[in-house]
Amino acid sequence: MPAERVRPFMFVAGSDRQKAVVYPLAGPAAGTGEVLVDRAPVRPADSIGDTARGDWNRPVPPTRFLHHYEGWEFDGVSVPEVLRASDSAFEYAMVDIEPLERWSHGRTTLIGDAAHAMYPVGSNGATQSVVDARALAHALALHADPAEAPAAYERERGPAMTALQRANRQLGPEAVISPAHQRAPGGFTDIDEVIPAHERAAISAGYAAAGASDPATVNLGSPYDVPVHALH
């Protein structure tokens, strides 16, 4: 889409019942000025049988969702325009699993969604999989016993990921849209009159801390760098 029709940030609008997420995947292409865009319209299923749990590859026409989003335009971003421009779409259920009692069995362990499947909010599914891999490599470098390393990794990562799974059930950083909708269902012109800046910041900061993406934690560097002596 033309870059000026998307804006260079992640756009989230709606409520805890129905929302739309739109964001660019790259900078403007040379010559055309267009950007590749991803979008995720989210709403309750029309019936229980509409979606299959865990089926992520069910193709549907992009216009299937269009009638639910007519008139959704905010600050120049038109959700119907984005949906009409889509080449393809997939429909899947927003599902997770209860936190597992354990990830590791002897020399075998789980990482990523296999260990802590969570609602896809906050961009944490892939991110935490990468962190898991670093944490597991770190544990393997520090423990000579290959059965102790997965257990150490699980002790380190398990509590934080359980907390993050539960935070995602509450919409993660997107939770800010719920009080905005509840307090101003007819819309607003000044967000500060609806949700003060300190309240918005607290929601964002709380989730960032849960996912270890807050500035203070990030600036400390990775806790999972492999010690040099372990590489020899």
TrEMBL record:
Keyword set, alphabetical order: Monooxygenase, Oxidoreductase
Entry-linked Pfam families: FAD_binding_3
Sequence ranges assigned to domain FAD-binding in this UniProt record: 100-164
Originating organism: Streptomyces enissocaesilis
Full protein name: FAD-binding domain-containing protein
Origin: domain of life: Bacteria
